[in-house]
Amino acid sequence: MIVETAERVFADHCSPEVMREAESGSIPERLWRALEEAGFTKALVPAESGGAGIEFGDALSLLIPAGRHAVPAPLAETLLAGWLLGKAGLRVPDGPLTVAPVRDGDALSASRDGAGWRLQGRASRVPWAARAAAIVVLARCEERNLVALAAPGDCRIAAGSNLAGEPRDEVDFSGARSTAAAFAAPDTAALHSLGAVMRSAQMAGALQFVLEASVQYACERVQFGRPIGRFQAVQQNLAVLAGQTAAATAAAEAGIEAAARGLDSRAVAAAKIRTGEAAGIGAAIAHQVHGAIGFTQEHRLHYSTRRLWSWRDEFGNEAYWARRLGGEVAAAGADRLWQGITAAG
Length: 345
Prior knowledge:
Order of helices and strands: HHHHHHEEEEEEEEEEHEEHHHHH
Number of strands: 12
Structural class: alpha+beta
Radius of gyration: 21 Å
């Protein structure tokens, strides 16, 4: 029921006009209002804390149809921020939210400053930072993890974007002050793992749209007197695309299910690796099938393929997660290899 409701909301508010409006990196107001009214933006926040109180796996499953419709808003980032604030027992503010740091190697720190906290450090490629109502920061303080709310206006932000035109900003937190902060258990590894699961779900949804659009176009586009979908080479490419989409969807769903039990699951790494691989193969095939029209600004295909190319690199690309997964397997030893494969969840 949740996914069906999401499908209707996304379909109603992600028209071509809305997608073009969002190309500048703005958040369409009507779309965001609809997401808030449906309770999607606080899906991972417990009901007693003012959230929707949706089950963890069900909330993450919202991102598959969100990816299918290329929702031009920070829904995943707001969900991630709400989860982090919930773990810290902090109130979740209204409006679009984002988190920092999101890249491996970026580290933030905090120190006590009277009744509040003083933040330090820089974070790169922070999604929607300048347009967020608040940035939820995970910093180190007194050898513990501190979750803090930072106001974008208190930070120095250099605007940037990914290939899809979604804002990815450089944020300097030095001197920013927070009065809403609390120590919490999650560390940056857990934050990035959940972010990877979210991107995997979004990529699986985007591939579903890419497959549907490619099959439809192959049935409609006539060349040499017949639809191109009747040519064997095109049929073979579409079969590969269908296989990649099915594999990515299965991997993303397995990652969501595993994440509900623990974010250190190997299925989380496998999901990001497999969906990232499918993203590259699937986007290439889709543009081959569509030909030149798929690259035009007027066609909807590029909204999905540009996101696929962008999302595969965020919260760790395939190489990052393959190294991490391989390191865990190697450390466990050869005797535990088969057991690790069959119990990957």
